[in-house]
TrEMBL record:
Species this protein is from: Flavimaribacter sediminis
Required cofactor names: Fe(2+)
Protein name (Swiss-Prot/TrEMBL): 2-oxoglutarate-dependent ethylene/succinate-forming enzyme
GO BP terms, alphabetized: ethylene biosynthetic process
The protein's Enzyme Commission number: 1.13.12.19, 1.14.20.7
Amino acid sequence: MKPLFEGGEAGRRHVADQIGEACRGIGFFYVAGHGVPASLREAVFSKAKEFFDSPEELKRKSLYSAASGNRGFIPMKGESLDPTKAPDLKEAFNIGLELPADDPEIVSGARFRALNLWPEVPGFKDTMLDYYNAVWSLGKSLHCAFATELGIETDFFDDKLSRPLATLRLLHYPPRPAALDEGQLGAGEHTDYGCVTLLATDEVGGLEVYSRDGRWLAAPYIPDTFVCNIGDCLMRWTNDVYVSTPHRVVSPPGRERYSVAFFLDPNPEAIVECLPGCATEETPAKYPPIRGDDYLESRLNPTYEKSGLVS
């Protein structure tokens, strides 16, 4: 990523072309030279483990609910990313954009705007907010690359990602048990909902990506990189020029797995509609315009209906 920041016009175009090739193909790519300190990444994983090792009673004090604005603790088997299969064998913790209690959207009860639910883990809040802001900044830089590759203004996405419905998600997968419910995985087959996902993983592995020729490919662990993938919202914005690829997590036997995902969804009022240049007479716009918050709600509800975490 360094040429995107330091290589001038030629560097930005070079990185954008590489990213665009991946986005139009497999839909996944790795980002190195991203500027997020290794010490911050390590601190996030350490605090995540500290939280997930806590007693269930403590974790449930910040339980996810329909009123929590997509924030808080999702218990083991509390989510079905593939609603046709058994619940996922994982637990998670979601953190959204940090807003003050007197923010107009908090006061009015706007959808997906809520105060974050901070657990009783020393240093957890400060660590997570530092990381949230770092990967949010990186995600905005990636959108400059997307815009460059798509031939639109490089700042097109700036005002659409200024107060995003972005979620930082901590994930813990227990060792795979000998007996699983039929079709049960660590995370069921799914595509991500937002624009782009920035995923930090440990060395355990388990992420698999569905290739265009119908094979599940293991995504290898590469130290100090982010695994990035296009989500359904950006695929919709580009009229399917960029590809949101199905993926899943197959938890390895005998080992715990931790990962940290940042899902960059647009501002709630951002209108997601076909970008200039992404429709032609042969490939007209496929999707009607939709607000960012309407789109997110349409995707989240089916994920939690089985668990009763939303109604």
